[in-house]
Amino acid sequence: MKYFNNFRPTFWSSVFTLIGFVFLVALGTWQVNRLEWKNNLIEERQSFLKDNPIEFNGDINLLEGNLWKPVRVFGSFSHEKELYLAARSMRGNVGFHVLTPFTLLNGKNVLINRGWVPRERKDPSQRSEGSVFGNLNLVGIITPGFKKGPFTPKNDAEKNVWLYVDFQEMGKNVGLSLESYVIDATENGKGGFPIGSQTRIKLPNDHLQYAITWYLLSISLVVIWFFWNKKNND
Question: How crowded is residue 192: how many other Cβ atoms within 10 Å of its Cβ?
Answer without folding.
Answer: 13
